[in-house]
């Protein structure tokens, strides 16, 4: 069953049938009713790709994320898909991994599917060199490219992100003001976001007159981080003689690993040790004691990203190229901040 059968059944041209399928107003109501009746009678389902050719839109958005098993990325994809669906758009998801060549291949694949835009979820897509970002810039010449928690200043590229540097700066300052000045920072990524978080930690120490001790900064070089990874990392620091009274982490999972170490070491939380995580996911309330965490407003970021995209489609000339959200520190039982 195809469009030709509908044309033969109704006695109207293929072009007219196409206009009815695509919702064109340039068809009489009598003809429209006849074509729709024939479609229903014959059980015809319009081919999505053919319909997209007629409308010059597939009503489909490509989404790229490195790893859907990562809680942050999985949650972001969920929020984005929900918002796209509310706006009558479908989505194609590509889990790219972290290898640059694989990312580039996935971008090429999505563009070959004639998606109307591409959303890059996570800051790991933004590289330090223009050459490595070239595939993104090239894609943006064809369709809008939206970045969630990444930033790239280029035509037809729109960034929605949290001020991660300010967020880690603020939580570090809260530790310091509460008397915790011998701090450890655990992180697992040198991405755009990961680097900004690290800078926030360093700047808070410097502006508080506290020397930055490099042996207090620990990179767990693993994308698929686990609670055990963090527990082992903090135990390794202790074995090396590193002394600390506070641990700030770039992810809630890392912070839970610290709590597990503290329990085995019979440390009292928060009396002996302050601990704070990042992302404010469910795990921060499931652990014991409940974890102080930074809420980076992920849902708001994702909703705004899709809203911005819809404005781009509507040819709104006032659409901001970059929108920055402020984070919020959610204090629970692993800290006792001085409120003064």
Helicity level: 40-55%
CATH class of the largest domain: Alpha Beta
Which topology of the largest domain does CATH recognise?
Rossmann fold
Q: Which spans have pLDDT < 50 for at least 5 consecutive residues?
A: none
CATH superfamily of the largest domain: Response regulator
Strand order in space, largest sheet: 2-1-3-4-5-11
Overall structural domain count: 3
Instruction: Quickly count the helices.
Output: 13
Radius of gyration: 25 Å
Assembly state here? single chain
- Judged by helices, strands and strand pairing, the structural class is alpha/beta
Mean pLDDT: 91
For the sheet with most strands, the description reads:
6 strands, parallel
User: How large a portion of the residues is in β-strands, by DSSP E?
Assistant: 15-25%
The succession of helices and strands, N to C, reads HHHHEHEHEHEEHEHEHEHEHEHEE
At CATH level 2, the architecture of the largest domain is 3-Layer(aba) Sandwich
| Beta-strand segment tally | 12
Distance between the termini: 74 Å
What is the overall shape? elongated
